[in-house]
Amino acid sequence: MEKVEILVSGGMGYIGSHTCVELIKAGYIPVTEYWSTPEKA
Rounded to an integer, what distance in angstroms lies between the CA atom of residue 7 and that of residue 30? Predict the structure, then answer.
């Protein structure tokens, strides 16, 4: 079976992170975006 990638919007939050865990258990590949704010120099 081919692995399917699923985009999880908000995957770094509480609900999104738990959703990612369940997707992995089900054999999917969760894809998330990590937006970080640059630190001041």
Answer: 6
Q: Convert the chain into a string of H (helix), E (strand) and C (coil).
A: CCCCEEECCCCCCHHHHHHHHHHHHCCCEEECCCCCCCCCC
Q: Considering the entire predicted model, what is its pTM? A: 0.72
Mean pLDDT by 10 residues, the chain (41 residues): 88 90 96 77 64
The structural domain count of the chain equals: 1
For residue 22, give Cα distances in angstroms to 6, 9, 36, 40, 41: 12, 15, 25, 36, 39
Residue-range definition of the domain harbouring residue 14: 1-40
